[in-house]
Structures are given as C-alpha cells and as structure tokens.
Design brief:
937 residues, mainly beta, 12 helices, globular
Amino acid sequence: MRKIVSNLGRGLARGSSAAALTAALLAAAPAIAQTAPEAADDAASQDDSIVITGSRIVRDGFEQPTPTTVIGEDELRLGQRQNLAQVLNDSPSFRPTATPQVLVGNTGSGTAPVDLRGLGINRTLTLVNKRRFVGNNNLNYVPMGIVERVEVVTGGASAAWGSDAVAGVANIILKDRVSGITVGGVSGISSRGDGARYGGDITAGTSFADGRGQIMFSAEYVKDESIPDRNSRDRLGSAGIVRLNPTSTTDLRQILVPDVNYGNQTPGGLITTGVLAGQMFNSDGSLSTYGAGTSLNANPAIRFPAQVLGGTSAVGLYDVIAVTTPVERISTYGRATYDFGAVKLWADVTYGRSRSTYAFLPDIGLGAQTISASNPFLSQSIRTTLANAGETSFTLGRLYTGPYSLIYDGTREQKEGAVGVNIDLGGTWKASAHFSHGEVDQAQRIRNARIVSRFNNAINAVSSGGQIVCGINADANATNDDAACRPLNLFGLNAASPEALAYIRGTQQNDTTTKLDAAAVEVQGDLFSLWAGPVTVVLGAEGRWEEQRSVSGALDLAGAFGPLNLYGSPVSGGYDVQEGFGEIAFPLFNAEGTAKVDLNGAARYSDYSRSGGIWSWKGGATVGLFDTLTLRGTRSRDIRAPTITELFSSRAINVGPLVDGDSAGRAAANPQYVSNPATVTTYSGGNPDLLPEISHTTTLGATFSPKFLPGFNLSVDFYDIKIDGAISTLSGSNLTIACRNGNAAACARITRDATGTVTEVRSNSQNIAVFETSGFDIEASYVFQMSAIADLPGTLRIRALATHVRDFVVDTGVSRIDTAGDVGAGTGNAIPSWRGTLSFVYQNDTLGLDARVRYVGAGKFNSQLDQSVNPTGYLVNNDIGAYAYLDLGARAKVMDRLTLSLNVNNVLDQKPPLSPVGPVFYDAVGTYFSIGARMKF
C-alpha cells in the first residue's frame, strides 16, 4: 500500500478573513494532537495513491513547484451541486462568471464553464484525464458519478499543457476501475417552493480476463427548473443607481436603491401625450389612471421620465427576468481498457445533450409608438375623447413582455471518441499516446422574435368595409400589400390576436458545429542519477485541429429582426497547431531528513497555422526542510491563442461620426483638420491577424506539514500574473484616446488623411489590452480520528481554503482600472478581495455529517464610484459588508447497500446585497433543500 501523497488537505476556507481562519486552525490543532494517534484520511482512500498532475512529472501535491489544489470526494459531495462547474465555483480561486443565476437574459444558458482567477473563461484550460476534450470548458458534459477528483493548477501551466492555461488548469480525473452497479437519485426544491431539481445517475463496471480488462459506464440525467419570479426574492427586483438629489444642479451624489422602474411605459401600454396622458390600458382595452412613481429625472417638468422610483403601476426590466435559468441534460461516458502487461490499451466514448428553454427577455428593441387617433382597436369613447380634443395621434409607451417576450431555446449535443495506449518501456521509462475526435452541435433559436417590417405593417390598423385590416391592404391600388398581414392590437397586455402575433413573429436561428481532433504522444523516464537522485524527463508532441461552421437563417442574414438580430453574422473558420514540449525534474541536493532541493523546468514550442511559432516555458524550484517545511517558486511564460470567434466573426462595416480623442495640436498644424468627422468608416468583427496573448506568471509559496501534528497541512502561495497583448475590442473614439495615451497597437488601427482627420478605424478584436492580477492562496487541512478527543468512532476532517486578491487591473490603453475588492453585480471584472470556505466532514461506518461556511469578504459595489475616485458623483452606499452562507448535510447508511442523504444550502436564508442584475458572488436562490438516495449492487 502506498500512502496518499496528494494535498488532500486543501479545502475551502473563510471567516472574517482567511488569516483569522488559518490562525484558528493552528491554535486549535496542538490541543487535539496531544492524544491523537497518527491521523489518516478515510479508510476507502488509504489504499490508493493520488497522482497529482500540476506538471507532467509525477510528484506529491505539496511538493509541486506550481501550486495545485485537489477537489476530492468530499468537495464533490458538499452542497449537492448539479454539475462540476458549480462545485468548482465554490472554490474561492474561481470566479462564478457563468452560473444559472448569472446567465439570465443571455444565450449562454445551458453551459457550465469555469473561470479561474477571474481572468476569463477562455483563459482557463479544462482537461479530462490530462487530455483536451471538445466543448472545452463546458462541464455539463461530464457525469459526476464517474469523477474521482479535480486537480486545479493555480498558476501558469502552458509549457506543460498548452494554450489557454494562462490562469491555470482544471484537470478532471475520472475513475479508472469500477466494480458493480451504483444507482442514485436526487431531488431538490427551494424554501419558497420553486427552483425544483431532480435527476438520477448510474455507474456500472466489471472486469474480465482475470482482471486485465475493464469495462465501465456512467450516465447522469438532471432537470433543473427555472425560478421565473424575481420579485419572490428580496433585493433582486429592478434596483438601480440613481441621483441622490435628481433635481439638484450641485449635488451629483448617487445611491443604489430598489424598485427603480420605467416611468414612460407599462406592460399594457401607457399614453404619454395629449388629453389622455397618464392613462394606461387595462387587459380589456379600457383605461385606468397610471400609478406613477417619483421622478428621477433632473428636470421635474418631464411628466413621464425614463426612470422613476416606486409607483403602483410602474415596472422595471428585471421584474420580468428570471432568477435562474433552466436546463435539462444527459451526460454519458463509457470506457474500456485491456492490460496486455507492458501495453495497456484504452478507449473512451462520451455523449452529452443539454437543452435550455425559457423566456429570457422582453422585446427591448422597441421604442415609443405613435398611434393614430382613428385606430379601430381603440374604443369609441377613447376615439371620441381624442376627436373632441382635436388630437389626431398620441404616443404609446409599452414594455413588450408577456406574449412579446423572447423565448430562448438552445440545444447542445456533444459526441466524442478517444483511443490511447500506455506502454511500460522498462525500468522507469513509460510512454503514452492518444487520439480523439469530438463534435459539438449547437442549435440556438430565439422564438417570438419580432420581424420589424411585419410589425410596422400590423400596427397600422384601419377600418375597411366594417373590418379591421392592415393599412397596406386597405387600398386596392397599393402595390406593397401583404395578404398575410393581420392587424395588431397594442392596447392591453394580451389584446393581440393569435393570428396577428403569428404574422409579426419569427424565429431567429443559428446552427453551429464545432470539431476538435487532438493527438498526443509522450515519453517519460529517468535519464540518469545524480548525487541527489534521478533526473527525470518528459518529451512529447501534440497536434490539434479545430474547426467551427455556423449557419444562420435567411431572415437573420437579412437583418429582419432589427436591433435584436442576434445571429446575423455567423462565425466560421478553423486553425491547427503542432507542438513539441519537454519537462525536466533535476534534484540538486538531498540530505535525508534535513534538506532537499529540486529544480523543475518545462518548455513548449507551438506552431499555429494562423500566427506562426511561439515559445512558452516554466522554471521552478522546491526546497524541503526537515521533512516539514517546503518552499517553492515558479516563473513561467504562458500563452493563449485566439479563439475561432475572435479570429473569424464576420466583418461589419459602419459609416458614421467619430469624436477624435487625439486632436491636440492637429488644428494648428492643418486648419482643414476636423476633430469630429461625420463619415468615418469603422470596421468591426473578427481579426484573422490576431496573435496569441502572452502572460508571465510568478508564484512563491511554502507548505507546512509538521511531524508533531500528523494529519495537518498548511500552504501559503503568492501569485502574480501579467497578460500582455490581451485580446480586446475598442470603439473608434476609444482607439484614438488609447493612441493619444501612447498605445502603438491602437495607433496602428487608425487611418488619417493628409489633414490629420480620421477617415477609417479598425475596431475589431485586437491584441491591445493588459491584464494584471496578484494575491495569495492560503490552504489548511486537519484530519484525525474522533477517538483522539472522545469515545467516538469515525474521522473528522477540517478543510479550509482562502484566496486574497491584492489587485486586478485591466488596462485597455484608454483606462487603467483596478477592480480588486469590487463585489457589485454588473460591475465589470468585479472580484472580491477575500473569498473562501471552511468545511467540517465527520464520517463513520454508518453516518456522515457535513457543515460548510462559504464566505465573501467586504468590498465596494464599484470602486470607480467611491468618493476617493469620484468626489462629486460618488455612490453614497458603495460599501458592501461581508457575507457568510452556512450549508449542512447528512448521510446515513440504512442498509448495507443503501445510503440516504439530506442537504440544506444557505440554511439561514441569507439575502444577497442589493443588485441591479443577477448577483455573481452571492446566493440569489435562498434556502434550498435536496434529498438523495444511492444504492450499490
């Protein structure tokens, strides 16, 4: 038996600060240790070795030069999360950028990516068993039942693993042997009776040929329903940042308040001009008085401002947007292996399908409508009132929700097969190779989408021959008539006829297929031995071929859906890359039990078909002292290649005005210079000339595993990441400002004529931005037998993890903003200064108990609105206090083969801070209950 060598002591921590939490663990531990025998992890894991893949060279997790966190069996179970992405989002080094409560109101519903360090989903590399997979970073496709653990490399790892590992790597390790059948089921619901979730899974496996062969299979089904009513949750309605004293010309302070609504529209329609101004349409077409709110406009004379506070009849956009998005998915995985002795063959197949359908937005592309006073859908009394006042029309303000709401319907289907071989070459030498092919088919539909030309036809309703018809069909001599046109009644939420709705609505559609072919081979072994031990090397090569083909509907390509035409520019393209890499572990000094020094280096050369060759590298060292303290550090150069979308999204051309931000001295040099040209040609879209982003990462840290306290581990690691040439998009005006500020890349995107006047800008994707972030990761764990402190069976495991972000800077050349400590939803690049979790897991032969605290530190809603930055227009309630959420769980083995479980998340029903959009770091659902059962055969 080999000891577990991973840093299974890594956990999730938080209290008022991670430092306080770690201090508490350190203070409590010695007292427990006085009578404790040598602690170990649970019995099930004592016989298995955990291989940590912080690099390609196998070594202990706490001995890795690059910090590596293991999300093990306990973390996979805590909170009874619905997918791997939600599990990882509980870890403080990840930013919950894309979750069911964040993806409301957009077309990303049904995906489950992760974002390490908050540097962006595209800068986190996800692997399955150390290999890339199609649908990279959509973890909905991985069945939870087959996952053994997830290893998170929290530092630059491009030299070892390739592009996209700028922020780090999440390597999903699947079980390699399964015996028997395990069937499970889970059901959950919120304390308010909504947000239902249910599902089931099965994992089965068997050996054959005297154990040389193994076949296993895992499948999982989950249906997670939406929480549609945002007003069922406190602080989630239509909040907004408004002027504290709107009518003051000197007091420019702002305040974040709830119940900020539209003041010029209602779901049934509001008349905002003329004799009937202030009347709104009821469901039957009659009128009633509009219950207006308090105006937030600086001019109190404006009767129907865009924003009001409160109002009995007023509604806001987020009043009609869901709290969470739904998803229904199935994920399957199969694996077959056969061990011939020195050669082991394996084959994987995966299939996954997810679908998300929900009303995600009202039709927000419509402004106020001018309605004819003779419109036949108006009641006779309304028409008479207008006629008596001599009015021929009025303005109608309407929030197009209900039957006009856009319905997102997205289906994603993933298929992949992989084959590979592992070869024992004798001695310490071994080799491996694999090839995989995968495809993701994505069908996206926006139903109920308004066809602009048909809508304009339908709202022009007239009376002809005693019938209400479309105006274009009333004139027998008209040449632009449309026999299919049906007049649209806009007066009341559900006043429109089904025939009229069918006429004005269409379906936006896009079908995209993404393909990935990947092949790799590597050889590892000891070259020779030195005074301190063997020199180990890994050499290998990889190839990758990526392709995306996208097709949109005819109406989409024609721009028929107006400003909400989402799929008018489909993206198609591809690229390939061939790579060679090497890694070496060099033991420099080894005095048994006293000191040990190891060096580590890696290099990779990547040749991209679009941009050519580029190097990435890493150098690291570990210093072990007295088998107790390990010091470690790395310096790496990492890369991220541009995505197909960034390279190939369709080029768009726009001709319009531009404000030149780089105008100083130009008029004096040439009197014909124009600072605000009216006809500047602006090109936007993808950029096939993009280069890979280049990042430099430094990590310095220490791990502490004292002999006097068996079972205790502590690590503290500093990280510093800077990404140069980050891919970003700037408007034409911002490009001129960036050029003025000395950004040469921005200057290269601007064309001026002989007078110095801007004539053309290329505001497509560019290598123009700089990202910088640094901070600390603090990890601690303690595992001990309960018999050490009381006459109790079982094991108690305490795990803590804390992340402190010192700075998070985004420099676009126009502005340089540090958002570390920003926690406000909707604030660009917000990331808390402190975040973490602390968990306690007790387990004996029949009973398991869990308790976990998730912590988000205090911060600013938006640091750019702080008084120190904006002394006149600052946000008066910009400070947001610390939040902590308590989760509890229990498991009981009621029979030899049956285990029942109960979990309660957010036990105290902690409300999120006030938010104008879906909160990122806080729980929007409230208390949530789930129960499960698991049977083994």
